[in-house]
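Protein in question quoted in full.
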Amino acid sequence: MSTGKDSSIHGESHWQRVAAAGLTLLPETPGADPALVFLFALFHDSMRLNDHYDPEHGPRGAALARELRGEAFDLEDAEMGLLAFACEEHTNGGIGPDPTVGVCWDADRLNLWRVGIIPDPRFLSTAAARSEERIAWARGLQRERFAWAELYRAFGLLDDRW
């Protein structure tokens, strides 16, 4: 059974903060796709079995995204592949090879404050995330609450993919 949206560590409030962090990184990261960053925030931890060791949760989140493709949202094959890769590999410690993947992974890693871990710039993919100011900003982000409707509008997700 998934920990789902109610998890205090990996649940909905974390997903929303990942979306908010991604939103702040996008203007400084040319080529990153806002829709994929938003979808990553929704799916990357959505299928965790627990809040501890669960190495297959990213692939399960990617599988859920693939299952919902064409119903809840629509993506081209290349976009879906990028989203799936971002979800599948987000916990493996790498640096994002693509601007979109980099923003996704950085948005998640900037939220490590929630478990008492200071994000390490060596493991952040984008210049926007690596700055001391952004890392400090992310600490305060942990006290914020966001509504999906506001995030959706802020991402400008009003095109025909939705």
Notes: The two ends are 28 Å apart (CA to CA).
